[in-house]
Amino acid sequence: MDSAIRNQVEQILTELRRAIDAGDVYLVDRRRNHETLLALGYTKANVLQVLRAMRSRDYRAGPEPDDKGRPGEIWKFEVKIETYRIYIKLCFVRDEAHRVVCISFHQ
Hints:
107 residues, 3 helices, globular
């Protein structure tokens, strides 16, 4: 990974950790997310721990515009949990609260 991209990813991960600390991370209630949480025996608190532990090596793509037209930037990551490869898609909403929406957390 090029150093400019690495710096950008590190900045977005710092922003993510700040949003977690502020309680401004929201997990979208989607069937695929729910099925993965059940398979792992995870709660939202576990998801937040995974998000907090992400590193630049977990980066896959971004920033990109949201393909559904929602405001914010989309960033994609992938982490390995047990035998699962988990796809994580985050939307960083650019408003006063600097919310982060976890759109995807699934296999």
